[in-house]
Automatic annotation (TrEMBL):
Organism, scientific name: Prunus yedoensis var. nudiflora
InterPro entries from the UniProt entry: P-loop_NTPase (IPR027417), Small_GTP-bd (IPR005225), T_Tr_GTP-bd_dom (IPR000795), Transl_B-barrel_sf (IPR009000)
Domain annotation Tr-type G: ranges: 17-312
NCBIfam families: small_GTP
Cellular compartments per GO CC: cytosol; ribonucleoprotein complex
GO MF annotations, alphabetized: GTP binding; GTPase activity; ribosome binding; translation elongation factor activity
Pfam families in UniProt: GTP_EFTU
Name of the featured protein: Tr-type G domain-containing protein
Length: 390
């Protein structure tokens, strides 16, 4: 992740296939703002050391005092994917640079209207679930709301640093991540599948299947089974190849066993800077995990691979976004994400409402006269229709 210049931003804006508009949704206190901080830190906007404490998407003082997010807040991130990561990406794209417009929204039920506004202008959502508390009431409510807007979701099981127990989860094709937002690390099964695929002589997709569900490996016999054989050395693939390596690294850091740690990191291809090698305990653990399994790489690659681009999302969401005839020039411009078409933006609520905006088609500039269609507007009529200048 890197900062982008104005020139780079203008260039990427022309690449419709490389833009992701997505919301972060979760039950209150499941870690949305903290995890978002880790992504913002990876872009160089804030220091990695303070990620989680800044709460970049909590813009109101009263919300900070209450420890909750009150207003939805947007931030744009410029992400350059590695050539290695792009090998497994089959979608349309222009180069390796991506613009990720991310909206952090409230999790408290009292501010659900903020989530509604955020979901209307996004195509994908990153859902968070606290690994201790699990799926809560607002988790289900927000997910239903997102699906109603035809938003495509991906998931991260967050706060992994709170609980290191055996987790029986069933992530599908890399759309589930496991994260520790406060400490800035995360992984998908893709990360570990790449490590072990060559060792077992199978492709990554096959290895991913072995790292989830009822798949057990016994190092004594070097065999995989679909049932636990009862052997003391037979363990679930996820536990043996994901959970235990992480636990071993964390314990080694916390016990300051650097004579064991450095060889382990060398095998993993992790290089620490000279000043970082002087860290101890929690500080060492945090830096090692951020270097080995950076949250930005795991989460943003998952979003880029599995959430729709602006051009893809608008093709099937046009019926949710436009209330007029679905075969007129406005619907077609929205469906095609056409920059040369008429200006199309989302509808607004009654009254004077400052909200997130998104251009679905056309181009917007100052002094441009636009038609504002209120909530009671009927296509073809003049009631609740206004003309204003940008």
């Amino acid at each position: 992740m890197v900062k982008f210049t104005a020139e780079e931003l203008r260039r990427i804006m022309d690449y419709k296939h490389n833009i992701r508009n997505m919301s972060v949704i979760a039950h209150v206190d499941h870690g949305k703002s903290t995890l978002t901080d880790s992504l913002v830190a990876a872009a160089g906007i804030i220091a990695q050391e303070v990620a989680g404490g800044v709460q970049m998407t909590d813009t109101r003082a009263d919300g900070a005092e209450r420890g909750i997010t009150i207003k939805s807040t947007g931030i744009s991130l410029h992400y350059k994917m590695t050539d290695e990561a792009l090998k497994s990406y089959k979608g349309e794209r222009n180069g390796n640079e991506y613009l990720i417009n991310l909206i952090g929204s409230p999790g408290h039920v009292d501010f659900s209207s903020e989530v509604t506004a955020a979901l209307r202008i996004t195509d994908g959502a990153l859902g968070l679930v606290d690994c201790i508390e699990g799926v809560c009431v607002q988790t289900e409510t927000l997910l239903r709301q997102a699906l109603g807007e035809r938003i495509r979701p991906v998931l991260t099981v967050n706060k992994m640093d709170r609980c290191f127990l055996e987790l029986q989860v069933y992530p599908e094709k890399g759309t589930v991540a496991f994260s520790a937002g406060l400490h800035g690390w995360a992984f998908t099964l893709t990360n570990f599948a790449k490590m072990y695929a060559s060792k077992f002589g199978v492709d990554e997709s096959k290895m991913m299947e072995r790292l989830r569900g009822e798949n057990y490996f016994d190092p004594a016999t070097k065999k995989w089974t679909s049932k636990n054989t009862g052997s003391a050395t037979s363990k679930r693939g996820f536990v043996q190849f994901c959970y235990e390596p992480i636990k071993q690294i964390i314990n080694t850091c916390m016990n300051d066993q650097k004579d064991k740690l450095w060889p382990m990191l060398t095998k993993l291809g992790v290089t620490m800077k000279s000043d970082e090698k002087e860290l101890m305990g929690k500080a060492l653990k945090k830096r090692v995990m951020q270097t080995w399994l950076p949250a930005s790489s795991a989460l943003l690659e998952m979003m880029n691979f599995h959430l729709p681009s602006t051009s893809t999302g608008q093709r099937y969401r046009v019926e949710n976004l436009y209330e007029g005839p679905l075969d007129d020039q406005y619907a077609n411009a929205t469906r095609n994400c056409d920059p040369e078409g008429p200006l199309i933006t989302p509808p607004s609520d009654k009254g004077r409402f400052f909200a997130f905006g998104r251009v679905f088609a056309g181009k917007v500039h100052t002094c441009l006269q636009v038609r504002i269609m209120g909530p009671n507007y009927v296509p073809g009529e003049k009631k609740d229709l206004y003309f204003k200048n940008v």
